[in-house]
Write a structure and sequence with these properties.
The chain is mainly β. The protein has one domain: Galactose-binding domain-like (Jelly Rolls), CATH 2.60.120.260. It is built from one helix and eight strands; from the N terminus they run E-H-E-E-E-E-E-E-E. Strand 3 and strand 4 form a beta hairpin. It is elongated, with a radius of gyration of 15 Å.
Length: 126
């Protein structure tokens, strides 16, 4: 499977709502991405990867089978459990084949109980 990094999530998004002085905590996030296949069709999956003191974690957001030149909305709610110091949080796209081309039209991540605002959500137009 071919895995591509789409974005590194800023700390202001994943750390929002962290209890003061907490070493271990969890948060739920709304995730969404519009992805257009530009080559052959196939299976694709949106995932979150994060590294913390407990190691590397991969959380699946959504997956879909799409045809060539089709657009797909990958979305869902994910719960991320953090332990100790967090090194990074990234959004990746897994593609079934090496020849699958793609374009990301929009990318969104927001903590579920936060107020809507530009500073606390990841929006990327590629």
């Amino acid at each position: 499977m071919n895995e591509q990094r789409l974005a590194r999530v800023p700390q202001r998004i994943w750390a929002e709502g962290r209890p003061a002085n907490a070493r271990n905590w969890a948060s739920e996030f709304n995730m969404a991405s519009w992805v257009r296949l530009t080559g052959v069709g196939g299976h694709m999956e949106l995932v979150i990867r994060h590294r913390d003191d407990a190691g590397e974690h991969v959380t699946s957001v959504d997956s879909v089978d799409a045809g060539s030149q089709e657009s797909a909305l990958l979305s869902g709610v994910v719960r991320l459990n953090f332990q100790g110091r967090v090194e990074e949080v990234e959004i990746h796209l897994k593609l079934a084949g090496e020849t699958m081309g793609y374009e990301v039209d929009e990318l969104f991540m927001q903590r579920r109980d936060s107020a809507m605002g530009r500073e606390n959500k990841l929006i990327s137009n590629f």
